[in-house]
Amino acid sequence: MFKFIVNIPKVVVALLLVAAIVNLLVGVFLRYVMLEVTDWLDVDPIRFTWVEEVGEMMLAWLTLIGAAIGVRERSHFTLHVLQFSPATQGVVDRIHYVLVAAVGILASYYGVKLCLLNRTLVTPGLEINLALLYGSAAVGGALLVVYALSMVVSPPPRDPDAVH
Question: What is the pLDDT along the chain (164 residues), one digit of tens a residue?
Fold first, then answer.
């Protein structure tokens, strides 16, 4: 059961990635195929402005949840300029993750503020509540805090041969 809960963000990102690809393909089809077909048949063109709005929403959610997963998986780029002893490197890593958690707190706090501020506004094409867009910052920031603090409390063992 716990393993299922831990994998929810990864499943959400995978589904968002597939949906974003499908959305992009639909947009290309509507723009370059159906627009020509409707011109040839001399009928009203199919509107496809919604593709941008849906893509923007998916990209925001995909980016912010994916960033948090990247923190937990230690897959973000790091640059090792200084070499420390393993004990000192552990302290530096913990400080790093505390700072990442602080950024997550800021993102989540301002994401909630933006949600509340824009809860009455909608997107121009599909009239989707803008709080859904800014909710990605709130959720992604909160997930970033949880994952960063989990790395402070229980960091994974360092692999000396791993490239980070």
Answer: 678 888 899 999 999 999 999 999 999 999 899 888 888 888 888 888 889 999 999 999 999 999 999 999 888 877 778 888 888 988 989 999 999 999 999 999 999 999 999 999 999 888 999 999 999 999 999 999 999 999 999 887 776 655 55
- Show me where the domains of the chain are located: 2-76+84-153
Residue with tokens 């490197």: 89
Nearest in space to 149 (alpha carbons), one of 119, 110, 113, 108 = 108
| Cα-Cα-Cα-Cα dihedral sign, residues 113, 117, 119, 124 | negative
* pTM score of the predicted model: 0.84
CA 108, CA 110: separation in Å to the nearest integer? 6
DSSP 2-67: HHHHHHHHHHHHHHHHHHHHHHHHHHHHIIIIIHHHHHHHT-PPPP-THHHHHHHHHHHHHHHHHH
Phi-psi sector, 146: left (phi>0), alpha (psi -120 to 50), beta: alpha
